[in-house]
Amino acid sequence: MTTPDLSPGFLHATRTSYDAMAPAYADFARGELAAKPLERALLSTFAELAAAGGGGLPVADVGCGTGRVTGFLHGLGRGLDVFGIDLSPQMVAVARQEHPGLRFEVGSMLALDLPDASLGGLLAWYSTIHVPDEELPRAFAEFHRVLAPGGYVQLGFQVGDEPLRMTEAWGLEVSLVFHRRQPERIAELLRDAGLEVVSRVWRERETDGPFPERAPQGFVLARRPVVSGACEDGDISTTD
């Protein structure tokens, strides 16, 4: 893949921050999915739908970080050709080291280096949280572009109305903004991008356990409609 364009300022800050955090983040998050059965169930559902509706096309984990969720999807044994894309070269380097049998590339969700309609599924698991509100429609338009008709997109994100700003993590200097959004707003933006919303799940914040959370969590599943033909009035109809 080509080197991503970092012209929106937040991309450079996000990449630099995750480059610095990559080894520490990998150690911290390695066992997270094992402690979160709801997330595993949602990801398993997404994998099943993508396998059934994606026509055998690959599935991209966009904003894959160290590849832990990419590896989980691959390990489900549903025959998914899953690969990861992340803005941070150091995160990608860790992902390649920890999951040597899988493919990981550097890229930006604002300009995916993928052909139109080339994916059977796209996962954005807590990766749109760093995208400012004004850039989110651009990301969702890219998701629509690269998904094949019938392909699914699954989002995970933090729920709220005010962003969290982080300047330090594991003793390292970072510059990250975590945008918290309401599921209804995410669903609206996905529809505006031409995607059909299938389900919305909202969960309260977990304050105990090995991975306490700072905000409630939201999960929205959508898909690109399947074009079934032209109606008599010239409009395009879609299947459910």
TrEMBL record:
Residues 59-151 form the Methyltransferase domain. One of its GO terms (molecular function) is methyltransferase activity. One of its GO terms (biological process) is methylation. It comes from Streptomyces filamentosus (Streptomyces roseosporus). Keywords: Methyltransferase, Transferase. The keyword Hydrolase does not apply. This is Class I SAM-dependent methyltransferase. The keyword Membrane does not apply. Transmembrane segments: none annotated. PANTHER family: METHYLTRANSFERASE, METHYLTRANSFERASE DOMAIN-CONTAINING PROTEIN. Pfam families: Methyltransf_25 (PF13649).
